[in-house]
Amino acid sequence: MSDFDDLEEVCRLREEAGSLRGQVFAAGQFSCRACALNLTATLLCEQDGSTGPDNQPQSCPNGCGPMQRVTEREMRKRAEDDVEIAIDRAEKAETELEVLRVELKGEQERSRHLLEQSNMWQERANAYLIQLRGVRDQCIGIAERAGRATPCDHERGVDEESGEIGCDLPECVCAARRETAARIAEGIRASERQQPEPAKQLEVA
Fold first, then answer.
1. What does the DSSP 8-state code read for residue 68?
2. Phi/psi at 158 (nearest 5 deg)?
3. CB–CB of 123/201 below 8 Å?
4. For residues 116 and 136, what is the distance between their CA atoms, to the nearest angstrom?
5. pLDDT (tens digit, 9 = 90+) per residue, 146-165?
6. Verdict on whether the full-model pTM lies above 0.90
7. Which of 180, 181, 184, 153 is nearest to 167 (CA)?
């Protein structure tokens, strides 16, 4: 055999090797060229429950006809495409997450501002409530003093229990004034029990 024949044989073998390299099939992997359905065929052993690839010809479940086997090169290209898609999705998700972080920070700042305003108004409301209680105590004192000091033209005396000044005649204005003053004081005390307690401030995070 001449050197020329050897060179032709080498070229032929290289072409055949290149052709075979692209025709190496992935075990149990099929694809439908019509509907782009990918199928993984698996065999189940009834005796020991083991599984393995099924390389027998498969028909497309969608009724397109016989399916084509998938080569290792096609499987690698499919995996590369899946990785690229996953990377794109991850980058998009990271961008959306960063936008949400910024929006969340803004919402936290607004919530903090509203909480500070709420605490400020609570402080004012508590101060007004304390002032109102002071006015109430003054009204009670005025009513009680009015009941104890009711002059009249009858004989005056001092009640040993209450210290009230005035007569004890039922028809006298002294008794009526003392009763009215007592009702006023009791009404003010009753309104105190209905007033809310000072509100507690909320903590600002």
1. E
2. -120, 125
3. yes
4. 30
5. 555 555 555 455 455 555 54
6. no
7. 153
